[in-house]
Specification:
Strand 2, helix 1 and strand 3 form a beta-alpha-beta unit. The strands form two sheets. The protein has an eight-stranded mixed β-sheet with strand order 1-4-3-2-5-7-6-8, with helices on both faces. A two-stranded antiparallel sheet has the order 9-10. Helix 7 packs parallel to helix 9 and helix 10 runs antiparallel to helix 11. It folds into two domains: 241 residues, Spore Coat Polysaccharide Biosynthesis Protein SpsA, Chain A; 162 residues, no CATH class. By secondary structure, it is an alpha/beta fold. The chain starts with 13 loop residues before the first strand and ends with a helix.
Length: 418
């Protein structure tokens, strides 16, 4: 007699196979989070079976379930596996599923019959070509009338997709498509952290940081079945805006180097040029005069730019999960080099302020007439002193980070050997 799962939200994790099934290795795992999808989940599992049969591939259908209704029992009746987990978020559901995935390739999606899993051949073709990460694209495929709210279709998704492509130099057309594929090894290497909707942009961004071979395939996107309350409506009137804000948060969190490194270098160069031009005193450019106030502004730009660009280096190092590209930065910020460079910069700063200090002492430490050029050079010296301190302290933190945190490749290799 097949096992019947009692109704109620799960409080522990339990993996349940359909009657007569054997857990054996397969080529493809279809991994789908679900919660209270009794209206659609049975037909969805049938779609998955049909898709696997049409593709001529042996696969696993794993539903990660946090339902309080009959959803898990319907899955078992239709020949799918159930992983019962407490409700902890969409991203967490995929993380919880990793130990139970038996395929070398994974296709993800929803159990609401909006993504058509009867047609998975495009994903398999890309996997066989050697791609590690494959995004479905609704815009390159077919969108059924009424399937996407206008706000999503014409504003939210295109805007956030453009932002991600602009920041990372990628060419995705639909970053919010939930139907996507990834190799099991690639998914483990991503070391996903997001517990909720942020998992979607996190996956894409980490695939770029890890330089996984990516591709897109067109998909069919259906509107919700009659009687089913869509995710869009379940989340309330502000759900779409909240999801957009979380996407923006993920873009900034995992793309901090974009906002820091090159803008910081540009700001530093701008400030350094200004400081150099005003080093020996005020400068008159036609009717426009640059005096000490501008000198202070240029020093500020130089210091903030230096700080930002170095934080960008730190972000690049953190995002280099497997430490494959940090070697060059590590050579640049060695202890000996940081001591030498910061020492030289500090010496320039002290020498630049020497005239002002000497004049002040000669005048009996009274407020006397200090030459304008000496004041300008002293301000530049303050800036140089700050740069020396920032560079040296950053080098210490950078080396501590690189030496103390093992690469994800090392962690991944160790986990495979256990």
């Amino acid at each position: 007699m097949p096992k019947t799962i009692p109704l109620g939200a799960p409080t522990t994790t339990e993996h349940i196979l359909p009657e007569g099934a054997v857990a054996e290795p397969v080529e493809l795992s279809i991994v789908i989070p679900a919660m209270n999808e009794k209206i659609t989940v049975g037909e969805f599992v049938d779609w998955c079976h049909e898709g696997l049969k049409k593709a001529g591939i042996k696969g696993q259908i794993l539903i990660v379930d946090s339902s309080s209704d009959e959803t898990p029992n319907i899955v078992l009746e239709h020949g799918g596996e159930v992983l019962r987990t407490p409700k902890r978020g969409l991203g967490r559901a995929y993380i919880d599923a990793i130990p139970f995935i038996r395929g070398k390739w994974i296709i993800m999606g929803d159990a609401d019959l909006t993504y058509d899993f009867r047609f998975i051949e495009g994903f398999l073709a890309k996997f066989r070509e050697g791609h590690d990460f494959i995004m479905g694209s609704r815009f390159k495929g077919t969108i059924e009338k009424g399937a996407m709210p206008p706000l999503h279709r014409y504003f939210g998704t295109p805007l956030t997709t453009w932002m991600l492509n602009f920041i990372y130099g990628s060419r995705f057309s639909d970053i919010h498509c939930g139907m996507r594929g990834v190799t099991l090894e690639g998914f483990k290497r991503m070391r996903m952290r997001s517990q909720s909707w942020q998992y979607a942009p996190e996956m894409i961004i980490k695939s770029l940081h890890l330089r996984l071979g990516s591709a897109e395939v067109p998909i069919i996107f259906h509107k919700d079945r009659e009687g089913r309350l869509s995710h869009y409506k379940r989340s309330g009137p502000f759900g779409a805006w909240y999801a957009g804000w979380m996407t923006l948060q993920a873009l900034c969190t995992y793309g901090a180097d974009f906002f820091l490194f090159k803008p910081g270098l540009s700001l530093f160069a701008f400030g350094a040029i200004g400081v150099t031009c005003l080093y020996n005193g005020p400068l008159q450019l036609g009717s426009f005069g640059l005096s000490l106030h501008w000198m202070l502004f240029f020093v500020l730009c130089m210091v903030v730019g230096c700080q930002s660009s170095l934080m960008g280096v730190l972000a690049k190092t953190i995002y280099d999960y497997e430490r494959t590209r940090s070697t060059g930065w590590k050579r640049f910020f060695t202890f000996n080099r940081s001591v030498a460079c910061s020492g030289v910069i500090l010496a320039i700063g002290l020498l630049s302020g020497a005239e002002l200090i000497t004049t002040y002492l000669q005048d009996g430490m009274r407020l006397g007439a200090i030459p304008s050029a000496a004041t300008h050079r002293a301000v530049a010296g303050i800036g140089a002193t700050l740069l020396a301190a920032i560079y040296f302290t950053f080098s210490l933190v950078f080396n501590a980070l690189v030496e103390s945190i093992p690469s994800d490749r090392e962690s991944f290799s160790n986990s495979k050997s256990c």
